[in-house]
Amino acid sequence: MTAASFPPAGSCDSHVHVIGPKSKFPLSPERSYTPMDAVTGELRAMLARLHLDRVVLVQPSFYRTDNSCMLAAMAEIKTCRGVAVLPAKVSDAELDDLDDQGIRGLRVNIASSGAPPLDVVREQLFAAARLCERHGWHVQMFVEAETLERIAPTLQELPVHSVIDHFGLIPPGTSGSALRALTRLLQSGNVWVKISGAYRTAEDPFDPRLGALARTLADANPDRIVWGSDWPHTPRHGANRREPMRELPFQNQDTLGLLNLVPQWLEDDKLVRKVLVSNPARLYGFD
Question: Long-range CB contacts (< 8 A, 24+ apart) of 41-48?
């Protein structure tokens, strides 16, 4: 794929966040850290600079179940879908309204809360899945590799598809039981993986071993892989737990460079189009 043809038309960033302005959309007082603002206009500018046509907004942990900031951004960006966070019980009317606004999944954030007991994680996943069933949404989860291995049987029991954030937080260069569990989940067809947030799983997002990891996951099921930048690159979780109200800068990451890794990782033009265009189109209902 030439530089002139990359990214292909219809490409999607499947994992970004919008934040603020906090004067209008205040963060939850129960948050574990405070990021800077990253408003809708800045997101639009990033998408234009990277020549990306579609985007998926993901509800961040510091907004808890208040999805109003994300929904406001989605109303402005027409080629947009969203992944919300909701309490365990929500009315059918609210679910219908969220579906109309472009919500296509519900997120369960496991990694940010440490290592909760397995029965607690199961309860969270099934509660989200029950809400997702009404409109065929998916359950998305941010989960540590060792926890992912423990919940793999649960994911096969869910009545809807699952999406795993950020390579399943499996470090590059490893070939242990967590990776085997994730490849089996992909092969089942019930689970998707985002090759996103490369700097969340590797000290260096340009570590060449990430390419081998991405190809291993794509080989397991090329129809269940999507990519995301993780813009605006929020601070590392737990970076400021002693002073969670003090605003922290974003991580200094090269968003364009992260996108340009995709063809380097996958080494196949048809697979690149799947990961950036056709797979997210199916998962998020862009078509």
Answer: 42/232, 43/16, 43/18, 43/73, 43/77, 43/231, 43/232, 44/76, 44/77, 46/16, 46/229, 46/231, 46/232, 46/255, 47/13
Which domain, by its residues, includes 280?
Answer: 8-284
Residues shown for the chain: 287
What is the count of structural domains for the chain?
Answer: 1
* Residue partners of 116: CB distance under 8 A and separation at least 6: 110
Instruction: Give domain status of residue 3, yes or no.
Output: no
Task: Encode pLDDT of 93-138 as tens digits.
Answer: 999 999 999 999 999 998 766 667 889 999 999 999 999 999 999 9
Task: State the CATH number of the domain containing residue 152.
Answer: 3.20.20.140
Residues annotated as part of the active site: 230
Q: Is 201 a member of any domain?
A: yes
- By C-alpha distance, which of 146, 157, 151, 216 is closest to 186? 216
